[in-house]
Amino acid sequence: MLARLYRSLYRIRRVEEEVARAYPTDKIKSPVHLSIGQEAVSVGVCAALRPTDVVFGTYRGHALYLAKGGDLNAMVAELYGKATGCARGKGGSMHLVDTAAGVMGTSAVVGTTIANAAGYAYALKTRRSDAVVVSFFGDGASEEGVFAETLNFASLKSLPVLFVCENNGYAIHTSQAKRQGRPDIAARAEAYGIPAERLDGNDVVGLLERTRTVLSGMRALGGPHFFEVKTYRLREHVGPGRDFALGYRAEAEAEPWVTNDPVQKLAARLPAGERVAIEQEVEAEVAAAFAFAEASPFPAAGELMTDIYQEAGDALACR
Amino acid sequence: MLARLYRSLYRIRRVEEEVARAYPTDKIKSPVHLSIGQEAVSVGVCAALRPTDVVFGTYRGHALYLAKGGDLNAMVAELYGKATGCARGKGGSMHLVDTAAGVMGTSAVVGTTIANAAGYAYALKTRRSDAVVVSFFGDGASEEGVFAETLNFASLKSLPVLFVCENNGYAIHTSQAKRQGRPDIAARAEAYGIPAERLDGNDVVGLLERTRTVLSGMRALGGPHFFEVKTYRLREHVGPGRDFALGYRAEAEAEPWVTNDPVQKLAARLPAGERVAIEQEVEAEVAAAFAFAEASPFPAAGELMTDIYQEAGDALACR
Amino acid sequence: MPSPAVKPPRPAPKTDRTLSFVDAVREAAELEMARDPNVIVFGLDVDDPKAIQGTTRGLPERFGPERCFGTPLSEDAMTGAAIGMALAGLRPVHVHIRMDFLLLAMNQLLNVAAKSRYMYGGRVNVPLVVRAMIGKSWGQGAQHSQGLHGMFMHVPGIKVVAPATPYDAKGCLAAAVRDDNPVLYVEHRLLHFTKGPVPEAAYTVEPGKARVTRRGADVTLVGISSMQVECLRAAAYLADVGIEAEVIDPIWLSPLDMDTICESVERTGRLIVVDTAWTNCGAAAEITAQVAERLQGIRDLRLKRMGFAPTTCPTAPNLEDLFYPNARTVAAAARDLVEDVKTGWLPAERADLKSIEFKGPF
Amino acid sequence: MPSPAVKPPRPAPKTDRTLSFVDAVREAAELEMARDPNVIVFGLDVDDPKAIQGTTRGLPERFGPERCFGTPLSEDAMTGAAIGMALAGLRPVHVHIRMDFLLLAMNQLLNVAAKSRYMYGGRVNVPLVVRAMIGKSWGQGAQHSQGLHGMFMHVPGIKVVAPATPYDAKGCLAAAVRDDNPVLYVEHRLLHFTKGPVPEAAYTVEPGKARVTRRGADVTLVGISSMQVECLRAAAYLADVGIEAEVIDPIWLSPLDMDTICESVERTGRLIVVDTAWTNCGAAAEITAQVAERLQGIRDLRLKRMGFAPTTCPTAPNLEDLFYPNARTVAAAARDLVEDVKTGWLPAERADLKSIEFKGPF
Ligand SMILES: Cc1ncc(C[n+]2csc(CCOP(=O)(O)OP(=O)(O)O)c2C)c(N)n1
Ligand SMILES: Cc1ncc(C[n+]2csc(CCOP(=O)(O)OP(=O)(O)O)c2C)c(N)n1
Ligand SMILES: [Mg+2]
Ligand SMILES: [Mg+2]
Fold first, then answer.
1. Which helix H or strand E contains C285, and what residues bound it?
2. Residues with beta carbon < 5 A to ion ligand 4?
């Protein structure tokens, strides 16, 4: 299990580091919101999921997409705007999707997928499925009205949704305290009748175990659950770099998160040989994905007018 | 004080009974949402307000408008669609307004005025005014996203708003339990850091006293407060009649509310002479208001194209 | 310009069975729910005693509360949830008693539903139907009277349909439910009271074709939603003075059958588009602009748009009357267009052509 | 048709002082805040280190956190709050880094702000300014690229302005702030980088008049927002082949100065409206329809609309290029219109007329 978690964590970290490295070449003409520092939340929770479970996320979606099993080549190609991308080059970094892996969507408008997740869960419930939906979103998203409306609906209909608030303490450059009268997001879930708890976003094993326990309850009895997971973003809000120079947060604030970086921590717990083998495999896979993206063609011009509507030839879209 | 409260309660009750009586003549071509049964909430709270305090309400706004001191003639004329109406015949029953009395607006879209009230309170705060804003809305409105968003903002900015949720147990024909996963509206206010309490909507004196206490705290220290007031609507959601025949609620449910009808209860506490004098004055006033409305002219045709924009002659509106 | 391969416009329905618009909507929903277990109907108050004017009557009883249910007052999240259901393979019909409330759901409708298929590169569909009603009269006023279909026509990725007859109400709802894309289904509350021929079996009225509802050579009247009824009445007033109007019901507004409209205007040389909405940047602007573009250099035209007065809807009954076009004002405008002069004519009201009356509270 | 008493279109500004669009917006805000203590500026991230591309830089420091503040992520309630502030006599400027997010605020903007004055019979005003930015390029994609001004032009009660130069950016923001009505102030993020003459003192560019930005007799190009820049470049390409384009910047979209546009088209006989938005039911539809209506019977016309391709905005750079009109495609279309034949001409790119380049992340 540790090896599996490490592989996932290391792989996500390395993919995003490669994105950051490639970014100045201007080949990735897509706004990237890196998860570096936050990977353990997606990895820990998704490690407890089945392939038939479904996740919804945000524009900061690389980690979630990969942790849930989204195709790596298709993701990198999507960032490059290539026809082989997971959204065929039409969505970019903010709209990753892999329906086969259960990554149902990631939106650039904050909060939107929270409601989509609840609706998906409603459908699962009508089908007597024991699959669950996990909705990932940020602390900022919890301020949008759709968040509260959705909590009420999920509670009312006892929907199989696990809400995972990745609380990194900031919305862009504004701290939670500057935005929330009572900065306690879990308390709001409780106010709507949803059991809620606070978890440590660096404790990947703890997250996995807690998710497993919660999900087995949800699969048996239904009903939503809420995790507020404390985590930290190490890079800038959007783009490849660091941003402590902007002055909105002190570098010292990041220190404990760096010290407890789950990628390093887990690495230290693995036998060296196993760790190196994983890392080598991942490096090869990542290099291949970037090579695949670079070599792939851009979409044909005609693609501009396809996929607008689902129908033969999308003829209706073209006037 | 009792006499003042009784006058206000009795007056509102009688105005709405007259609306119901006149309705079948089709002279009031306006959808009326009567407050009969709920008057004590508006009366109790507004009795604690100063003229410079401001209220925002809903389409069910007759009681609030009158309790806050809105002009009676202008209200009835507005229902009749007359030029002498408080909105010059352009707004109808759902859009009562009397800025001189501090009735700042009543909207037909559920939830909207909650945010408007908070904004108004922000303005008061920037002016170091000790006036307060009271936002009246229903239990249904608490399910709209704008409710949660506004609570957070009011809490964050410590705004002088008293939120008054008139919980009559229904949104149109649907009970609160069918709409809310955890039917505890005050708990949500608390989750956003706003002190909240539950009050009895038939206890007009209790409401007045509690409001007074709370407001003196708010005027001195700022910050929002929340009342969830349990009350009951005796007439149909919209229109003049009773609706127990529809079957969505049992007539028995209304019994305790009828038994504890604050209009009757308060009447019984007043000396007969004083009570009769009040009633006679009110009857005369109400009759005069309906006569005024009947006698008033409809707006001139040109009024269609005025008041769209605030400027000389509203010329821009006419193409 | 109209291509030679244009499909003929839709024929009028033939059946002896008469149904109200309300019952036609209800029947379509019931047939589709029976046909496909993925179809569900929900929205505020769909399961209450009034059953959305009767359009959802009996559905909860027949299909159970999981497939037909009322919701909290949460337009934004309920729209988002509908999208999630659609992504999971359900075919939700989300009902709004007033189109005005869609303004709370624009983000999910236009940023998510309309864009999902494209922005996910065709990997997903959103087979969602949104039923929304336009209110009118009895002082419904500023916030309960808007026809906002133009805003949805503006954005690619969502279809828009506005049936004007019970026949089309049934067929278009079935087509919308079976469509794999989001569809805004616009109902006018005054049309709910109208009756017309409706076959018993299920059928669809697919996107892509308008219906010529009356033939005439002098002027083309395009009437949208309830204004279709007013246009047909206007044609009767015009016939009284010897003017033969051709009347077209576009039915589907997006995609829009401009071929049928342009073919007609090319013959008549005159067009009035009458909408139950503001004309500015609305459906009437679009149709007028397309006709002007497509027939430029082909023939000289006379054009006019009619719709809501460019103001907020007032509640005083006399002002409310002035806010809307009606059969007589349409007829008057058409005659002026045909005779190319301000005649000042306004037909005296014919009892048999009175506009629908409606008594409140709503 | 243009009345004889038409006011002349606006003259071009004269000053030696050069400012960027960003600084012009910032300066207008600062001058208005200094002039009137009721003016406040707020919105998500207005007080953060990036200061909305610099447009709010320094305002919190100079005027304090009560008059310039960031908000929670709550577009709906923050818009409602802005209306409440305006009802109380403040003059709020509510800032949105992307126009797409306005879809969360449509209910407050259109059901409340636009209607309050009318539905309360003129008893209240809502002096609110909403600044909203249109994004473009670098893969911003489906949800970060929309120009939605057409939706606001559809509804009476709210004004719409879309300045294209630093001069108008400053003057229109001042006019919007001083206006007693809600105003949507549209900024295009690529225009933010442009520079131009801006006088130091405060001034207003009031609603009601367009500006003729280039004189020409062969074709009228109406360019909205960033498309004004492309139209001026297109005119240069056209001049290379002997075609003289007249270019008009409407500046204010609601109310719209159709007199200036119609006067021009009456002379040139040819019109292309270029918008940074979809054309369907958009500003381009409205302008085209009005020209067709007003010049019918006066002169034969050639008309064309250009705007976003009728699809969702893609992120692949090659598709994104095809999604937008640009100087060369506008020039090509104009030449075809003037010569009334498909010439197939597309001018070779001139280095001095390149479109603005932009490097991400955003
Ligand atoms: C509705 C909406 N409002 C504003 C934005 C601009 N915006 C993009 S990301 C972001 C911050 C979101 O913060 P959070 O939810 O905590 O997620 P994080 O970026 O920290 O992962 C904002 C305000 C947006 N994309 N959507
Ligand atoms: C946004 C919105 N959604 C739906 C409606 C339709 N509607 C009118 S009143 C109402 C019920 C509101 O219930 P509540 O807030 O409890 O107020 P009450 O009528 O009980 O006083 C509904 C759903 C509306 N007017 N606005
Ligand atoms: Mg965050
Ligand atoms: Mg209620």
1. helix C283-294
2. B 138-139, 168, 170
Element at A226 (helix H, strand E): strand A225-230
ipTM metric: 0.97
Contact C311, C145 (CB under 8 A): no
Question: For chain C, which residues make up each domain, given as ranges?
Answer: 19-197, 211-353
Which atom of ligand 2 approaches the CA of B142 most closely?
15
- The total of other beta-carbon atoms located within 10 Å of residue A195's CB is 14
Between C114, C297, C303, which is nearest D296 by CB? C303
Q: Which atom of ligand 2 is nearest to the CA of B108?
A: 25
A7-23 CB burial, b ≥16 within 10 A, e <16? bbbbbbbbbbebbbebb
Q: For residue B54, which residues of chain D lie inside 8 Å, CB to CB? A: 88
Of the candidates C73, B166, C92, the one whose C-alpha atom is nearest the C-alpha of residue A145 is: C73
Which runs of E-coded beta strand occur in A129-216? 133-138, 161-167, 170-171, 174-175, 196-200
CA–CA dist C279, C211 (Å, integer) = 22
- % of residues, chain D, pLDDT over 70: 98
Q: How many structural domains compose chain B? A: 1
DSSP C10: B
pLDDT confidence bin for D354, thresholds 50/70/90: confident
Subunits with 3+ Cβ pairs within 8 Å of A are B, C, D
In a domain, B108, yes or no: yes
Return the CATH architecture of domain D211-353. Answer: 3-Layer(aba) Sandwich (3.40)
Q: Is D88 in Cβ contact with B119 (below 8 Å)? A: yes
Over range D11-21, report the average pLDDT.
87
Q: How confident is the model at residue D131 (pLDDT cuts 50, 70, 90)?
A: very high
Contact C312 D118 (CB under 8 A): yes
3-class DSSP state for residue A171? strand
- pLDDT tens digits, C327-353: 999 999 999 999 999 999 999 999 999
Write down the architecture of domain D19-197 according to CATH.
3-Layer(aba) Sandwich (3.40)
Give the CATH number, domain containing residue A246.
3.40.50.970
Q: What is the pLDDT of residue D195?
A: 96
Please indicate, yes or no, if residue A195 is contained in any of the structural domains: yes
Count the alpha carbons within 13 Å of B116 in the hemisphere toward its beta carbon.
32
pLDDT band at C8 (very low <50, low <70, confident <90, very high): low
Q: How far apart are CA B142 and CA A268, in angstroms?
A: 50
Segment B77-108, tens digit of pLDDT: 999 999 999 999 999 999 999 999 999 999 99
Do the domain assignments include residue A306?
no
- Per-residue CA distances from A166 to A8, A201, B213 (Å): 18, 8, 41
Calculate how close chain D gets to A129, using CA atoms only, in Å.
Answer: 32
β-pairing verdict for D211-214 and A133-138: unpaired
Q: Residue C353 gets which letter from DSSP?
A: G
Catalytic residue among C96, C144, C188, C192: C144
Which tokens go with D197? 């003459």
Q: What is the mean pLDDT of chain C?
A: 96
> Is residue A311 assigned to a domain?
no
